[in-house]
Amino acid sequence: MPTKTSKRTSLPEKTSTSQIIASITNNTELPSLNPTNITPQIFHSLLNLYPQTVTAVHNRKNTLKLQPKPKTTKRKAEDLERAQSERTPSLEDTVRSETEKFLELDTWRYEGMPQILSERKSKSDGREGYVDKVELIRIMEWKLCVPSPLALSMELDPGLHTKNHRKHGHFRPTLMSMIKSNAEKLVLECTSSAISLLPGPNSTPNTESEGDVFPKESLDALTRLRGVGVATASLVLSIATAASADADEVPFYSDDTFLWLCAACYPGSEEVARKYLKPNGDLGVKYNVNEYRLLWDKMGELRGRLNGMGEEEGKVGFVDVERVAFVVRNLEVSGFDVGGGDGGGGEVEEKEVKKVKK
C-alpha cells in the first residue's frame, strides 16, 4: 500500500531534543509519521517494534551508566559504540540484568497491574478498584525509569545537563519521596474514589473526541495526593482502564505522546510546534489540565481515525498510541525499516541509522 513520504532534514552542529527527534539522517525517505495521516500498516509496524525498542533504549542507558567514565575528557557519542564493543562478560551480565529488571516493571505496568485492577473492580465486595501505596510507588518508579533522548545525550556529554531533564515526564528529584510520604489510608481513599468516579458508557460526553468523557473528577481525586500531578494521575487512570472497553480507556499524559501528537515532533516533521519547547529543545509544558485536554482530543482523533479505517491490522487503543509514540521518539534504535515496514506486523528489516552530528 503506497504511503506518503517525507525527507529527513540535516541538523546543525548543536542539537536539541526536538532536533534529535525531528531528523535522524540525511537524504533518506521514510513513510509519513504524521499522526494525521499515518497509515494503520505503519502504525502497527511501529507498535510491533516496541519490545525491541524499549530493550535497546535500556541497554544503551545501562551501558552508559555502568561503563567507567573518563576523568579528564567529555564522553562523545562514539564512546557509546566503544563502550558496547568493549563490555566485559561481567559488565554484559550487569547490563542485561538491569535491563531485565525494567522490562519486568514495564510488563507489570502494561499487563500485570491492569489485570489486578480489573479483577478488583469486578469483585462484588462493595469496594471499587483501588491502588495501594506499594503499587503507587511502583507506578512512579516506572514513570521515572525511562530515559529520554536528552537524558541519554547528557550521559554522553555532561555539558547538555539541565536540572529539568525528564524521563516519562518532568523530572523532580523529590517526587518519589513525596509519593512515599502519603499515608496508606489516603492512597486507598483517593485511588478508590478516582476509579469509582471514572465516566462510564452512559455518561454525557463533554468532548468531541469519539464521544469520550473527560475524567476531571477522577483527576481531582488523585491530585489530592502529594507528588501526584495531572500526568501521574492520568497514568494511574490509564492503568485502571487498560482492560476496559475502548470507549472507557483513559490515555496517559506522557512526554512521548505530547511531543508526537501535540508538538508535531517526529522524524520528517516540517512544522514543529515550538511553543511547547524550551530554547534548549526540552519539552516546556506545565502538565496541567488544559494541556491534557488537548492531548486527550489528539489521542481520540488518532485512535478514531485508525479504527475507522478497518480492523484488518487490529483495533487501536490508547496504550498502543503511547507505545508507538515511544518508538517514534526513539526511532534511531528501533530497527524501523525506513522503506516503510512490512505493512502489518511481520518482521521488520533492521537497518543501521546514521548518527546525528553533535
UniProtKB/TrEMBL annotation:
Stretches the record annotates as Disordered: 60-95
Bias kind Basic and acidic residues: ranges: 75-95
Protein name: Uncharacterized protein
Gene source species: Penicillium atrosanguineum
